[in-house]
Design goal:
Largest sheet: 8 strands, mixed
Helix content: 25-40%
Order of helices and strands: HEHEHEHEHEHEHEHEHH
Shape: globular
Strand content: 5-15%
Oligomer: single chain
Structural class: alpha/beta
Length: 249
């Protein structure tokens, strides 16, 4: 007999999030430059999607002269790769994607924190083990209170982001304390063709970061297709429990 690992409470939570899906198509943000920190599979997958949507992108790398990832994909052949310092201190860039391990994020940002006041950073990390303390995104917001952090794209695999034919009903769950920053990332998500779901404040990141762990613990057990079709998890890193104040449960 097949048993599912998803509780009724978890099912109610994700169905509730889907009911809040944004259908308001705000003005596009195309032609803006997005900084992507990290040149791994997820960073390059999202970079290609952004290029296809009309965005300019620049990768921040510890080794900008080592452009091996570009040679593997012709779509990225003309993309600029610069040092982390030059990307983070670029005054023309407002939105950054943190496509690096969570353990490296604080040390990456700290030297340039005075240059990052008011900037928007998208945290795609997940927990590596269950926890009931603050989420990765909340921790970053505590360490860098002048940066606007948004939890987003963490429940999508690099394959799902890169593939035009994946699933057909994927969604991108978005949480952040600053409403303007959250809306900017939701619009970015629409622009790349992935409908966003507004999850409210950053407290929701605890549930969003914990859920990929739940899927992993029962890998091999059939998914609950009524809602998991749109939650193919990208398992780079993972995190905790609890949801935002404006999300009843």
């Amino acid at each position: 007999m097949i048993s599912y690992i998803v509780s009724k409470q978890q099912l109610a939570f994700y169905l509730y999030l889907l009911s809040r899906e944004e259908n308001i198509y705000a003005e596009t943000m195309e032609n803006q430059t997005i900084g992507i920190l990290g040149t791994g599979n997820y960073g390059t997958a999202l970079g290609k999607r952004l290029l296809q949507a009309g965005y300019e992108i620049v990768f921040g790398s510890r080794n900008p002269l080592q452009r091996s990832f570009i040679t593997r994909d012709k779509q990225l052949s003309n993309v600029k790769v610069d040092s982390v310092k030059n990307v983070l201190t670029n005054k023309e860039i407002e939105i950054f994607i943190l496509a690096i391990p969570y353990s490296s994020m604080e040390s990456c940002l700290r030297p340039y924190k005075n240059d990052l006041v008011g900037k928007i950073f998208v945290d795609i990390s997940n927990r590596t083990k269950p926890s009931k303390i603050e989420s990765n995104a909340e921790n970053l917001a505590i360490i860098f209170p002048d940066i606007r952090f948004v939890k987003s794209f963490n429940m999508l695999s690099a394959y799902a982001v890169e593939s035009e034919n994946f699933g057909g009903s994927i969604r991108n769950f978005v949480a952040g304390n600053n409403r303007h920053a959250r809306e900017r990332i939701m619009q970015l998500s629409r622009d790349v063709g992935i409908p966003p779901v507004d999850c409210g404040n950053l407290g929701a990141a605890r549930k969003l970061e914990a859920y990929p762990l739940t899927l992993m613990s029962g890998w091999g057990i059939p998914r609950v297709s009524c809602y998991v079709d749109n939650i193919r998890a990208g398992w780079e890193r993972r995190k905790p429990e609890k949801i935002g104040n404006d999300i009843p449960l």
